[in-house]
Amino acid sequence: MKTISYSHSAGKTEIFIQRNFPFSSFFKENVTGKSIAIADENLAGIISKTHPDFFKSFDHLITIPEGEPAKSFEEYEKLIERLVDFGADRTTTLVAVGGGVTGDLTGFAGATFMRGLSVYQVPTTLLSQIDSSIGGKTGINLKAGKNLVGAFWQPKGILIDPDFLKSLPQREVYSALGEMLKYFILNSEEEFLSFHSVLMKETADSLLNSHFDLLSEWIEKGVRYKVAIVEADEKELNVRALLNLGHTFGHAIEKYYGYNELRHGEAVSIGIWFAAWLSSEMGWLAHEKVNLVRECVLKLVPSEKPSKQWNEEVILNYLFKDKKKEGSILKYVIPETIGKCRIHPIQDLNWLSGKIREFHQTELKW
Ligand SMILES: NC(=O)c1ccc[n+]([C@@H]2O[C@H](COP(=O)([O-])OP(=O)(O)OC[C@H]3O[C@@H](n4cnc5c(N)ncnc54)[C@H](O)[C@@H]3O)[C@@H](O)[C@H]2O)c1
Ligand SMILES: [Zn+2]
Fold this sequence. Notes:
This protein is of the alpha/beta class. It folds into two domains: 2-167, Rossmann fold; 174-364, Dehydroquinate synthase-like, alpha domain, CATH 1.20.1090. The chain has helices spanning 23-30, 41-50, 73-85, 100-112, 126-132, 170-187, 189-201, 204-208, 212-232, 247-257, 264-281, 287-300, 312-320, 349-364; strands spanning 2-8, 11-17, 35-40, 60-64, 93-98, 118-123, 137-142, 145-152, 157-160, 330-337, 340-346. It has a seven-stranded mixed sheet with strand order 1-2-9-6-5-3-4. It has a two-stranded antiparallel ribbon with strand order 7-8. Helix 10 crosses helix 11 (264-281). It starts with a strand and ends with a helix. The model has no long low-confidence stretch (mean pLDDT 95). The structure holds nicotinamide-adenine-dinucleotide and zinc ion. Residues 40, 42-43, 46, 66-68, 71, 98-102, 104, 124-125, 127-128, 131-132, 135, 137, 146-147, 164-165, 167-168, 172, 264 line the site of nicotinamide-adenine-dinucleotide.
């Protein structure tokens, strides 16, 4: 078993990575009060087939709807009411079993119910294993935007069993690899080049089957990158903002197209492509490097264009409403080189709009 821990203002969180993780004995040893697992309906059905005994480790199971709509005030309220029905009190432990949606909603319920319950994260998507389960950001969405209501609430532990990924749809794997691409561009040219060469040869299917060890290695690398940044900057005051690479433009197109046409990680991949292209327009990143980034992104996003027509005005409007905007300056994460990114303030939003138009016409071509 690999154990990686990170320190934060509330103490320390341990992350365990192991195939075939011994959940039952772990929870027996580590939880004294009642334990309540929370999973989305789709995953609960899958796990009851792939791991028939899994939910027996908990006193109760609460299911929430599948997908992003579960991160809403209505579902938050329903979840809290279920906790009350089950007699949850301050000694109760919540266990989020699932992707980032379940983790964010459960974490937020844990942060707020009776002013705070213990939470464990059992991430079951690649995205949640390498990213969302780590760092204590929890929250729900408003109509005005994603994650606008939330809290920092660190889990007591994060239990990562890569074997859960075996049932993950290929599209979810590719999409999450967009966040892996982000880590490599932020941290290491060498790792980026090796990621690129694997991506050019393999498919999500071959990674899930014949090269599962490679995928497990990437999970560990992703966890370590995320931990390093969270430790350096728990509350996202400075370096953690680098994790927004690809997310400013990404969030705008994600919001515009919606989940059915574009997954979060796909939108982020395209955002990274734009950031790399923008960097070369500014004279920083070499064209060959942009080309490598483009090749990775084209592998990770579906080859068909979304059916919805590109609408520049609406997309720019979403982009400039991004919550990272301070006054009229947009803080943009841009790779100076592969392996080194910086937060670049963009004041001239007309210039940025022009660049987005150019990127759309000459690169993305949607
Ligand atoms: N808190 C953070 O720091 C942070 C960071 C990044 C993203 N997020 C949030 O994470 C969310 C996205 O997370 P996600 O991509 O994991 O989405 P998700 O939770 O919606 O899961 C995606 C789909 O995979 C299914 N699924 C989950 N595990 C599976 C498995 N093992 N086998 C088969 N199917 C499985 C789910 O039922 C769902 O249909 C977004 O809401 C985003 O805002 C949070
Ligand atoms: Zn993301």
